[in-house]
Design brief:
The chain contains eleven helices and twelve strands. It is of the alpha/beta class.
Length: about 280
């Protein structure tokens, strides 16, 4: 993860949340009052977001000391302490909500990715994400997928070509679309094509696409069609894939299964933050 980019993101998030000042904390707690913040898991799962905790607290106040007890990708149990931070209470309270919002989402993505990866374990197929990430959070979403045992698809429109039905319709044919893009493309960038019919599959093979995506195809169809795909062409399945069918898709022999719901429909993993005031300050 790019720490420089992460810090820039966190600064923007805090500007949005804190604005000119924290009316609650700054009007109640003197600056000298110090305390301890504990980040605690309220559900079992796979943790992700160590750097978010460390950098998030330090962006608000560099004097804050942080101890994280779980590595990204590590398992957490309900009630376990994920991290502890010590510093001015004002700073701890300003930091906690942004941090929690991010690590709850990241941990949920990592947890679900891990669950799916376990379901297809032993097949040789890899699970990956899509571009269906939360705008502004793609780096974190995709990092969380990796920490859950998954793999990343392209990061955006800029690092790989994916030719879908709209592109093919405009070009007039799959072959024309691939050849037109390839003529203008650098030699290090791969071209993926989305196919839905056997005729398109044959065309994709003939034009030597780098990756063929079987879109909305059944596992039986993929198993049959994959027999004619050369070994040097990567295959991917997407669409119509559920928890009940994912194992069958993996056993079809496809190289990757891409799942948009890993990032677009995730439900936050419940994690809380509790602040206690040091008794030496006169707190309880």
């Amino acid at each position: 993860m790019n720490t420089i980019k992460l810090r820039s993101m966190l600064e923007q998030f805090y500007v949005e949340d804190i604005g000119d000042c924290d009316l609650s904390s700054e009007f109640l707690f003197p600056e000298a009052i110090t305390g301890e913040l504990n980040i605690v898991a309220k559900m079992d799962g796979v943790f992700c977001g160590r750097k978010v905790i460390e950098e998030g607290l330090r962006v608000v106040d560099p004097s804050t000391t942080v101890s994280c007890y779980v590595e990204d990708g590590g398992t957490i149990e309900k009630g376990s302490v994920i991290a502890t931070a010590k510093g001015p209470v004002q700073s701890l309270l300003k930091s906690e909500r942004v941090i929690l919002n991010l690590i709850q989402r990241m941990s949920a993505i990592a947890t679900e990715t891990h669950r799916v990866a376990e379901k297809i374990e032993g097949t040789g197929t890899k699970v990956c994400d899509t571009r269906k990430t939360m705008p502004g959070l793609r780096m974190l979403d995709k990092y969380a997928v990796r920490m859950g045992g998954g793999f990343n698809h392209r990061n955006g429109l800029f690092d790989a070509v994916m030719l879908k039905d709209n592109h093919l319709a405009f070009a007039g044919s799959l072959t024309t679309a691939v050849e037109t893009v390839r003529a203008a493309l650098g030699h290090t960038t791969k071209i993926e094509v989305e196919i839905e019919s056997f005729a398109q599959l044959q065309e994709a093979i003939a034009v030597k696409a780098d990756i063929i995506m079987f879109d909305n195809c059944t596992p039986e169809t993929i198993r049959e069609w994959k027999q004619i795909v050369p070994d040097n062409i990567i295959t991917e399945a997407s669409g119509m894939i559920t928890n009940d069918t994912i194992r069958a898709y993996a056993e079809s022999g496809v190289d990757y299964i891409s799942l948009g719901y890993l990032t677009h429909s995730v439900k936050a993993l419940d994690i809380s933050a509790n602040v206690t005031i040091n008794k030496s300050n006169g707190g309880n």
